[in-house]
Amino acid sequence: MKRIKKLVKRIDDELCSAEYYAEKSVEYKIDGDSTMSQKFSGMAAEELNHAMTIHDVAVKEIDKVSSVITPPADMREKW
Predict the structure, then answer these.
(1) What's the rounded Cα separation, in Å, for the pair 78 and 49?
(2) What percent of the chain has pLDDT over 90?
C-alpha cells in the first residue's frame, strides 16, 4: 500500500508542475510572448500526460491489491 501512496504523491507532483507551467503560459501570453506561452502550455500538457500515466499504474496496483485483500473503507475512499 506504500507503493500506491508513493504513486499518489508522484501524481500530485506532476499536477503541481502542470499548474505552474500553465500559469507561466498565461503570464507569457499576457506579456505578448506567444512562443514562450506555447512552450509552457506544451510543458503543462506533458505533465498532465505524466500524471495520467502514473494514474493508470496506480489503478493497476489498486486492482492487484484488491484482488488479494479487502482494503479498509477509509483506504478505498482515499484511493
Answers:
(1) 22
(2) 75
